[in-house]
Amino acid sequence: MKGYKIGSFLLVILLAIALVGCAGLTNPNPQDSQDKKNNLKEEQNIGSPLKVSFIDVGQADAALIQIPNGKNIVIDAGKNNDGEFLIKYLEDQGIKEIHILIGTHPHEDHIGGMDKVIENFKIGQVIMPKVTHNTRTFEDVLLAVQEKGLKIKEGKAGVQLDLGLPAEGLPPVSAEILAPMSGKYEDLNNYSIVLRLVYGANAFLFTGDAEDVSEKEMLASGVNLKADVLKVGHHGSNSSTTKDFLTAVDPKHAIISVGKDNSYGHPTEKVLKRLREKGAVIYRTDQAGTITVTSDGSTLTFALTSP
């Protein structure tokens, strides 16, 4: 983590700019030497299956969603030192524009590379929960948002993402934020944006670092949590993925974004056992590298890249 803290006065000013919005147009993206190649890749993606890549960023989170109508969503951006890696990864996928960029919560292992992503790509919208964090990492994200002339939209339960019209002849796609459901938590993890993405008959649930407190709120609300693919909360920590939550989600596949031989003991054996008991096939980035899931609206296909 970028170690020093920023002054509270500067943070207030930055938040006023970022969360309320500043005047001016979005700055144009810097030119890329691979513009023609990337344009071709983006054109080729239109009408392709929906693709979700759980990017191997070690003990951190980052995911790319490529929608068949050509729109792209990035959820989280790894740690501070992952910025350049993510830029290259996204460029290699032909990404020139990120239509929706989500920071699930302001911990360094989720938004560390977000400033670099904002600086290097055309960004349509930034979504984050309404909570601050007095760190240089958080300041860097706010400064990047300000310099790009963007606004931050509050991510909270009930927000529907605007994904545009479906590609011709393909199933509809939708995405709804299910959490956070409250405006005040003791732990930053429970501010995590939880997103449910639906494409045809397939559903994905992205949970950030949401813990049992947030899981219980979602269960109590009666919101539909069912998903074929679950991005397991908090890297497989005991704080998340409770039995009742798993019962409601009923995942066929579980993705754990985690670093090899990490000092936290993630994923814990308790969580792995719960997932096995539910019959979920477990995929881990520390073992499989980046995990890419494609969907045609009914069938899921998994591709693994060795770390």
Could you give a short description of this structure?
This protein is of the alpha/beta class and 307 residues long. The protein is built from ten helices and 16 strands.
Could you explain how this protein is built, in words?
The structure is a single chain. The protein has 307 residues and is of the alpha/beta class. It has a single domain, classed as Metallo-beta-lactamase, Chain A (4-Layer Sandwich). It contains ten helices and 16 strands. The strands form three sheets. An eight-stranded mixed beta sheet has the order 8-7-5-3-2-1-15-16. Strand 10 and strand 11 form a beta hairpin. Helix 1 packs across helix 6, helix 3 crosses helix 5 and helix 5 runs parallel beside helix 6. It holds the Pfam family Lactamase_B.
| Cα Rg | 18 Å
**Percent range for helical residues?**
25-40%
> What is the CATH homologous superfamily assignment?
Ribonuclease Z/Hydroxyacylglutathione hydrolase-like
The first-level CATH class name: Alpha Beta
How many DSSP H or I helices?
A: 10
Structural class: alpha/beta
pLDDT averaged over residues: 89
CATH architecture: 4-Layer Sandwich
* Beta strand %: 15-25%
Distance between the termini: 23 Å
Largest sheet: 8 strands, mixed
Sketch the topology as an H/E string, one letter per element. Answer: HHEEEHEEHHEEHEEEEHEHEHEHEE
